[in-house]
């Protein structure tokens, strides 16, 4: 074994160890505390969990590549809401009235385009102005949310299309539509990050932007593409979710950015860029959903979930730092 | 003859850009609507900005020291709920110091994690945002808090009272701003905050206790949050659990608008106050112009990006970023 391989394996596998720990804990605790008769590790329960992870999980895949790239996107929750409104509202537009159910792919396409455009706009601003991505997307989080509210005030936008609902509620090979989307997106972004030049460059830029520039990598376009990807995925998440629910409140998606970032950081992606993996993020998403579901299973309310997730996030950060120390931080203060 | 190069004019404009923008806004809105600069309107704008403003003062310290504080919103909900709950249980005279102590404990915890353990402040305060929200819900049992006897308590003086015709929240905001402005600009501690934010390693080698400085900044931030919670609780005498939700980002927007750099080492209390007032007056001015309420968010977005962009453009001497 190479030196450092153990600590590397420990860190890579940490999130999966945590998931196993959660499963064991909630299974045992559920025996004593749960009000329902079904076991926590019930197969249907786990399938449902995968489906419920989809809205956050799909966006988290995009956040992984953006954070590996050394940026961050705080506007995903607002982009999510914009795409949802475009999806539901465009189905009622008179120009599409003659399409019948063919309006569905058109509405999907429009929603995805809107998300991609808003994401790319963030990327373009970061690229051309050189303003930090944190500030740019903090601003657009307010701005995009303002656009959502300008559209329909504080009223919900609703439209139910039963063909669409049937599609969203369908199951294929035992998995719900949303789960398939989550798995497909995970696979897609994994391939993008590990098998393409764009993925390699994203890591290089996040690790050391100066060196990447000197190596001849065009940093700007790569960053913009990544922002377009996360915009697209925020829209895809909205499309998958609202196809089923059919009604969007202007506040929907608020705090999604925080949940997504929590999942990505739990999955081992560095906030400073250059390191992280899609598989780890997938683990982080599952771990958070397990925690929410498990705490609900043993009768804890939502307040406990918030408390526990916040503290776990800090604990993970602490452990990660301890594993990374290796004596190089000689400067004790 | 003194010649002034274009570069110097540019950097001078950028240095005072936020003041110039503020002046232009005020002139523009006043021309558009005569009511804009009336005493009543100015008081109402500053009063409604006071809560955000008080929080922004504390966050300015944290940002100058090179860190972030995203937990101030949920911490403000916490202190509001706590003081309202204790008001009926132990009376306002004891409730206020008790609330301050509890809020400062939270600030000390964050300060310990970021200062002494040197964890990433973005993630720590993100975690604390969620954790304190959970704490608040657990404390209140998910219920809204209300003071039983709303008429007969002197507690309302902080949010609704006035001294010599000036509303108390404005007085508290401005006097706290003056106090903290002096601390930041005129005391050795203030110099240390700039030094730690500007170059932490250099500051350490100059004998500055970096951890203690960062810790104190978070304590100041928590203290400001407690004042904001006090004003909020006293103004409404009842509150939801989520009263401060989302405020952390608006606070940060005001601080950034005031020219503080997220890299640390740059910013002043005075400019943060200007940032807060710009946000407040823009919101008010757009409403007076008859534009929809939510239009202000779009304008805020554009202003934040323009302000930061012009600032760094002046520093690098080029409008567009050199990123290929």
Automatic annotation (TrEMBL), chain A:
Assembly behavior: The complex is composed of two ATP-binding proteins (LsrA), two transmembrane proteins (LsrC and LsrD) and a solute-binding protein (LsrB).
CDD domains linked: TM_PBP1_transp_AraH_like
Broad class of where this protein is predominantly found: membrane
Protein name per UniProt: Autoinducer 2 import system permease protein LsrD
GO MF, one example: transmembrane transporter activity
GO cellular component, one term: plasma membrane
Record localization: Cell membrane
Function per UniProt: Part of the ABC transporter complex LsrABCD involved in autoinducer 2 (AI-2) import. Probably responsible for the translocation of the substrate across the membrane.
PANTHER family in alphabetical order: ABC TRANSPORTER PERMEASE PROTEIN YPHD-RELATED-RELATED, AUTOINDUCER 2 IMPORT SYSTEM PERMEASE PROTEIN LSRD
Membrane topology value: Multi-pass membrane protein
Protein origin, superkingdom: Bacteria
Transmembrane portions of the chain: 12-33, 53-69, 76-96, 102-121, 133-152, 172-193, 224-243, 258-291, 298-319
Keyword tags: Cell inner membrane, Cell membrane, Membrane, Transmembrane, Transmembrane helix, Transport
UniProtKB/TrEMBL annotation, chain B:
Gene Ontology molecular function, alphabetical: transmembrane transporter activity
Pfam family, any one: BPD_transp_2
Compartments where found: Cell membrane
The entry's keywords: Cell inner membrane, Cell membrane, Membrane, Transmembrane, Transmembrane helix, Transport
Membrane topology: Multi-pass membrane protein
Record's GO cellular component terms: plasma membrane
InterPro entries, alphabetized: ABC_transp_permease
Spans traversing the lipid bilayer: 12-32, 44-63, 93-115, 122-142, 162-185, 213-231, 251-279, 286-310
PANTHER family noted in UniProt: ABC TRANSPORTER PERMEASE PROTEIN YPHD-RELATED (PTHR32196:SF21), ABC TRANSPORTER PERMEASE PROTEIN YPHD-RELATED-RELATED (PTHR32196)
Annotated protein name in UniProt: Monosaccharide ABC transporter membrane protein, CUT2 family
Lineage: Bacteria, Pseudomonadati, Pseudomonadota, Alphaproteobacteria, Rhodobacterales
